[in-house]
Structure formats: C-alpha cells, structure tokens
Amino acid sequence: MNNRLPPAWSKHLKTRSGPQNPQLKVAQPRAASLSHVQADDALLRQALNLQQADRLAEAEALCQRVLARNPRHPLALYLLGTFALDLDDEMAIRCFERAVREAPQNPHYHLTLGEIYLKVGEHSDAIRHFEVACQLKGDWVEALCALGRAYTEFGKADLAVPLYEKALEIDSGRSAIRMGLANALVSLGRMDEATRHMKEAISRRQEIAAAYNGLASIRQFVEEPAELKSILTELKNPELDRKSIQQFHHAAGKILNDIRRYDEAIGHFRQAKELSTRRFDMDSYRRSVDFMIELFDPPMLASKAGHGSTSDVPVFVLGMPRSGTTLTEQILASHPDVHGAGELTKLRRITNRLAPKTRSPEELRRSILDMTVDQSKSLADEYLTHIRQRSPDARRIVDKLPHNFELIGLIRILFPKAQIIHCRRDAIDNCISCYFLSFNEDNIYNADLHTLGLYYREYDRLMGHWDKIFPGQILQNRYEDMVSDQEGQSRRLIDHLGLPWDDACLRFFDKGGAVNTFSRWQVRQPIYTSSVSRWKNYGSAIQPLIDGLGDLAGN
C-alpha cells in the first residue's frame, strides 16, 4: 500500500495518462470544446501526473474541482483516497467508502478499500470487501491473495490456504502466491508443508530473499545447513535491492546465531540495520513520554471515575516486544474461557481519532480532558465490538499488542475493570532479541543498539509511572520466572483473570489455531531456557546497548 496507486487505475480513464513531468502545467479544459465527462477525465489524468511529481496539493485541488461539479464522481473520490494513503488513512477510508457506494460493481475499489482496512487492523471490513472483489472478478489472483492475507492475519489461516491454492492453480508464476501460502501454513503450525513451498519458491527464483528468511525463521538449527552457503552466495549479487539484502542478512544472522557463531551473527544483523532508511527520533519520543506522564496524573484520572465500560472481557498483555507477550497470550488462550486475539491495532486507531486534525499532543490532551461519560462509553463499546468479532462468547479476550504499554492511561479510562499484564525480561536479553528482528518502520528504534537501549529506558520510565498511579492494578509477569516455574506462574496468570484453573494451560504448545507474531515457531515448543542470559554470548559487540541502558543493564 505504501506510496502506490491502487491497482489498474488507468482502466477507469478513457485514455492513458501522459509521462510524469515535474514541470507540467495544469491545463484549463474549455467547457465549449469538451463534454463534462471528457473535462473531468482530463483533470483527473493531470491530477495523477501531479501526484506522481510529488505535487500533492495541486493534485488534490484538481480532484476537488471535479467533485465540485459532481460530488459523487467515483474516480475522483478514489484518487483522493490514494493521495491520502499513509498521510491520513482515516480520510483515505472515507474517500474509498464513498467511491464504493457510487460504483459498487467496481472490483478495484473494493480491493483498495479492503487493503487499507487491513492496514489499520479492521479485518472483518477488509475481508468483506475482498470477498466482494473476488465475486465481481472471478479468478482474480490479486484479490484471492489479499483475501488470503486478511484471513491469515485474522487468525483464520485455515480459510486462507484454499484461496492461495486456487491462486496457484491460476498463475503458478506469481511470486507472492507461494510465499503467502507458506505464511498461512506457518501460522497453522504446518511447518513441513510451509518449508516445501518456500523451497519451491527458491527453486523458481520467486521472492527468494523472503523465502530464505522464512526458512531460517521457522526452525532451530543445531549445525550449519546448506541454506547458509546459498544465502551468503546470494548476498554477493550486485543486483539485489535493499529489502532483499536486509532479508538475506537477517536469515544469515538467525542461522549463525542458532549454531553459536555469535560474532558472525551479530555482524549480519548489524549490516541489515544499517540499511534502514529512517532513524528513530529519540528526543521526540522522550517528549511523548513526558506528555503521557504529565497528562495522566491522579487528579485527571479521578475526574474520569465512572467513565468507560464495566466489561471485564478485555485483557491487555503488553510490554516491550520479545518480552514474553506471545508466550503469555498462548498460556492464557489455552484456557477454554479465553480467546487470544493477537496484536490488535484498534486501541491505537481510537487514540489517533482523538486528535484527527493536527495529531498534536495538545489536541489529544484536550480530547481526553473534555471526554464525556457518553463519549468514553461509545469508544469502549467500539473496541468491544471489534474484539467480539474475534470471539463472540469468550469470557476473556486477550489483546497482546506490546506497545499498548504507551496507552495504559486511556485503557484505564475506557476499561476500569480490564486486566493488564505487563511482561518483563532481563533488559539486555530483551533488547538483543528486539535487535535480531526486522521491525517495521514505525518501530525503527531497534535500528542501532545504542538507540535501542535509550528507548528501553523511556519504556521503563513510563511503566514506572503507570505502576505508581495504578498501584496493584498491573500484574508483573517476568519471563525468567515463567521459564523457571511454568506451572506456578501459569496458575498466577489464570487466577489474575478470575478464572478456574485448567491443566490445558500447561500444554500451550499443543494448542491449535493460528499464531501471527515473530514468535510463531517458539510458541509451538515447550518452554526452553536457552534465551535466558543470552546476551553474554556477544561480548563487546553489544557495548553500545549496555551504554544506552545505563543502570538498567542486567535488570
């Protein structure tokens, strides 16, 4: 979705757009010589050229001219949506929704609306529009793959598998299909089948870097595999793009780390990180933590007594990534009364909507301070409806998005009775594990070790604030304690949720269903101890991390 026009936009125009030209001048179609339809098409073609020349304001203005004459023009609405992608996703959704209403038989509009719904975590809406796209345009591989991806992310990878298999029958040469199928199979724990498809992708030279990275991620290596030599050979290819190089380095680093060649491993991870195109703004993040601490103080929270929902269904498992959140969720979700919903972005989306105009801290502050009881109940009900789509009947539903640790203040306003479980781990081990993963651009704080250590300090500072103003309301769940006393800590978790004990929680790794986090492989294994104190293997290579952590190193 990033910075691309939705598929096949040119099919909606009578002629193709001209070449990109940053110096292009906006023509003024003459009404006397052109029909309204032709004039609108001419303006929209120019809008596309302007957008491609990074003249977004002018492109939007041309679309608005078309809409001023015809407020229901579907293509103008559609293009406005594309211009808003990544800048204002809520606006993009509104534009695409209007375009779909005006042209409900256009499969491309449904596909694009589904893609942005998937991006913001509204899986049910995404699935609905992908299904319509598949109905309107039978055997459309792109729509089949999109629907498969949505089902996989929604925890219904079993429904995704036949869609990918159908897509393979239609076009076995399309690279994304085989890897999408492999990803769905991994989510289901069908590792042997996933491996077969990844190896087939490699033999066909289809998404080869992603395939090798996938193979490296779904098993533990005890000796050097043949894949390592192949990966190192691939890295010598001068034609590789940046993303492929990163994936190959991550794959090599994972294998080398498994077989205890630690210096080589961390060297590959470092090279992958150095290719990141963005750097994390630590000063800005410190200010955001200051903002949260200042805003959510005892007097303000006291003024919100009686707000939100009385529901005790939501359970928030949070903390730093790689701190044991997935393990904790799997143990909880093994209980018959608990559903693990995975990493949900709904709460973040609700937060963003509280400051829709400027996205500034001051706008968010005003929205939260002015929030009425009715508004808070409406937001809470919206979240409850969202999680109930995952499981209509469960007594507890777990949202395990780690970075919800930033939103504990809002969680407490909306859900005073919700259980919050904070996962912690040895600080150096936690950060090293983060460093070894390829996070998205939103979490680029792991791009270098020193920044990662500084980020951890801010996380620790914010959690200290939440513990202070919500005493006894946040259960501390330490990874090392889970490893050393699985049953005792598991019973403690279930008791915290107010549920009777069930022995199924001790065999979380036998639980069926899909898992869609970086820990997909690990959570299907019994608890192991090899990740405790792993940082000692890396010597001076991780000194920048230790410097960044300061007095938190080893805590």
Describe the overall structure.
The structure is a single chain. The chain has 555 residues and is mainly α. It has helices at residues 36-52, 56-69, 74-84, 89-102, 107-119, 123-136, 141-153, 157-170, 175-187, 191-203, 208-217, 226-234, 242-258, 262-274, 282-295, 298-303, 325-333, 346-353, 361-369, 373-388, 408-414, 427-435, 449-469, 479-484, 486-496, 543-549; strands spanning 314-319, 338-340, 396-399, 419-424, 474-478. It has a 5-stranded parallel beta sheet with strand order 2-3-1-4-5, with helices on both faces. Helix 6 runs antiparallel to helix 7 and helix 15 packs parallel to helix 23 (449-469). It starts with 35 loop residues before the first helix and ends in a 6-residue tail after the last helix. Residues 6-24 have low confidence and may be disordered.
Q: In this structure, how is the largest beta sheet organized?
A: 5 strands, parallel
**Helix count from the secondary structure assignment:** 26
Q: Which regions have little confidence, pLDDT < 50, spanning 5+ residues?
A: 6-24
Form type: globular
Q: What percent strand?
A: under 5%
- The average pLDDT score comes to 89
Compute the CA-based radius of gyration. Answer: 25 Å
